[in-house]
TrEMBL record:
Cofactor or coenzyme needed: Cu cation
Signal peptide boundaries: 1-23
Name of the protein: Laccase
Plastocyanin-like domain: residues covered: 31-145, 157-311, 438-568
GO cellular component, one term: apoplast
Provenance organism: Cannabis sativa
Length: 585
């Protein structure tokens, strides 16, 4: 090759590299149906740009991007930017009938996404009905230009998206669930990057494979996009070093598995070996299975897998040839916890600590001026008159299952969203009296609780917070109907998880054990079964912000509420005006 040709080739490669690594500021999301085949059958699913999982968004810390969402599908939809705080800009946050009315078929909404101090991995997903089952994707947030990771630069960065797959149409699954009044049908498979893996029928050819080189460091951006299950994740004969959660850095934590709740993201470094741990086998399963502790609660007890493959050295042909391997990949039999391993689940989540150094300081609220104590419960409603008990009241003893926070089962408005009602002073949509304490005190985690406690009140109740309030919120799990873990997610904020415990929260005892030095900064917290978790945050983001359990069935049942943070004194602390193309109701 002549020198000029070599130089031209070099410039072309440099150009391609720059275009692959630079963050775009404008994205075009087309919502449309696309056929996908999994588990021996084909169905149409809702996608973004025909992709499942959807496209990855790449930004730098502090960027602002613009996403044009055009709905060519057959259903209303909204898109939520999970964990992006959107300072002063709830208009683009996305939860249906909370901050916007849905984007109707044929319509378009131009969303402005404002990043602030997030750094690491977040994700985006649909926030209408259960459409996020297939409408989701990763957000990779790189350090601010001119700065670096607080850990050695990885050789490559790979999104690992954990999900669920149903053979039925997801909206049919939702409809049958709502009509029945009971538990939803469990998924037919879990997935890793959209593929079920080797242990399911008709799935082996599509299993996701991550080809790695020896003695290299990889950053796995792990996302739990599953609908209804907390998951364990592990890689055979390989440790992971956790360095971030929910778009915030943590102190390095080396572990042979992780526990990750729906909605959560974990950044983990994978250091490959100088030579494959097993010289006779260069393939290792990465595997995920459910963590589920609820009594009489059905769950998907299958295991999804992907393959970690060591590239054969000195083979420069291509990855396909370089990975000619024989034998079954090794499985993490001794590392992947069992379904009900509470000790492993809690040991992991309680071991996380913020990085909390000079370059990445933390600011835990110390002087608290707003205390909230909220029970989070599974409930039941009596079977309404005229309902067929066998078909529509399949909860315990012929009831309909529900869920609540402080005995309020949230009801979504359906004529206008909460944000517009608040901004334009429209009365009668919400009641600003969500209780800051449960209406009744009882042994929340007792084994035999009166049936009368199981029935909540319905309502669109919200809680108004003064701008600048330092909020402490204690989530208290209860054993009403069925105690279970709850991943609680707050829009518009990250919060410090200052404490966990089992049993009933006792302020005199448990506050003494709070971590106020280096608590992890998260947007989703796993509240343990029949236990509690305490979070703290400063209410410095004016707007309307949804809070809910990220188990989709619990959100549907009503384990939700809304915080309205009032404007501050100065313009920089006040809500931005609505964009001109807000979807109409």
């Amino acid at each position: 090759m002549m020198f000029g040709q070599r130089l031209a080739c070099l410039f072309f490669l440099m150009f391609m590299f720059m275009n692959c690594t630079q963050a775009s500021t404008h994205y075009n999301f087309v919502v449309k149906e696309a056929p996908y085949t999994r588990l021996c059958s084909t169905k149409n699913i809702l996608t973004i740009n025909g992709k499942f999982p959807g496209p990855t968004i790449r930004v730098h810390k502090g960027d602002t991007i613009y996403v044009r969402v055009h709905n060519k599908g057959n259903h209303n939809i909204t898109i939520h930017w999970h964990g992006v705080k959107q300072p002063r800009n709830p208009w683009s946050d996305g939860p249906e009938y909370i901050t916007q009315c849905p984007i109707q078929p044929g319509e378009t909404f131009n969303q402005k996404i404002i990043f602030s101090n997030e750094e690491g991995t977040l994700w985006w997903h649909a926030h209408s009905d259960w459409l996020r089952a297939t409408v989701h994707g990763a957000i990779e947030i790189f350090p601010k230009k001119g700065t670096t990771f607080p850990f050695p630069k990885p050789h490559k960065q790979i999104p690992i998206i954990l999900g669920e797959w149903w053979k039925k149409d997801i909206l049919q699954v939702l409809e049958e669930f709502v009509v029945s009044g009971g538990q939803p049908n469990v998924s037919d498979a879990f997935t890793i990057n959209g593929q079920p893996g080797d242990f399911y029928n008709c799935s082996k050819p599509g299993t996701f494979k991550l080809v790695v080189e020896q003695n290299k460091r990889y950053l796995l951006r792990i996302i739990n996009a599953a609908m209804n299950e907390i998951l364990f994740f592990s890689i055979a004969q390989h440790n992971l070093t956790v360095v971030g959660i929910d778009g915030s850095y943590t102190k390095p934590l080396t572990t042979n598995f992780i526990t990750i709740s729906p909605g959560q993201t974990i950044d983990a470094l994978l250091q490959t070996a100088m030579s494959p741990p097993n010289r006779n086998n260069r393939q290792y399963y990465m595997a995920a299975r459910a963590y589920s502790t609820g009594v009489n609660v059905t769950f998907d007890n299958t295991t999804t897998t992907a393959i970690l493959q060591y590239k054969i050295l000195n083979d420069t042909v291509n990855d396909d040839v370089a990975c000619r391997l024989t034998g079954q990949p090794l499985f993490p039999y001794y590392d992947l916890p069992y379904y009900n391993d509470t000790n492993s689940a809690l040991n992991f989540v309680t071991s996380l600590r913020s990085l909390a150094n000079q370059d990445h300081p933390i600011n835990v609220p110390i002087e608290i001026n707003k205390h909230i104590f909220s029970t989070i419960s599974i409930n039941t409603f009596p079977c309404p008159n005229g309902y067929n008990v066998n078909d529509t009241c399949q909860g315990p003893n012929g009831t309909r299952l529900a869920a609540s926070m402080n005995n309020i089962s949230f009801v979504f408005p359906n004529k206008i969203d909460v944000l517009e009602a608040y901004y334009f002073h429209i009365n009668g949509i919400v009641r600003a009296n969500f209780p800051i304490f449960p209406p009744l005190l009882f042994n929340f985690t007792g084994d035999f609780l009166p049936l009368a406690l199981q029935t909540p009140m319905n309502g669109t109740r919200v809680r108004v917070l003064e701008y600048g309030s330092n909020v402490e919120l204690v989530f208290q799990g209860t054993n009403l109907v069925a105690g279970i873990d709850h991943p609680m997610h707050l829009h518009g904020f990250s919060f410090y998880v200052v404490g966990y415990g089992l049993g009933n929260f006792d302020p005199k005892r448990d506050e003494l054990g709070y971590n106020l030095v280096d608590p992890p900064l998260q947007n989703t917290v796993m509240v343990p079964k029949n236990g509690w978790a305490t979070i703290r945050f400063a209410a410095t983001n004016p707007g309307v912000w949804f809070m809910h359990c990220h188990l989709e069935r619990h959100l549907t049942w009503g384990m939700d509420t809304v915080f309205i943070v009032k404007n501050g004194k100065y313009k920089q602390a006040q809500l931005l005006p609505p964009p001109p193309d807000m979807p109409p109701c």
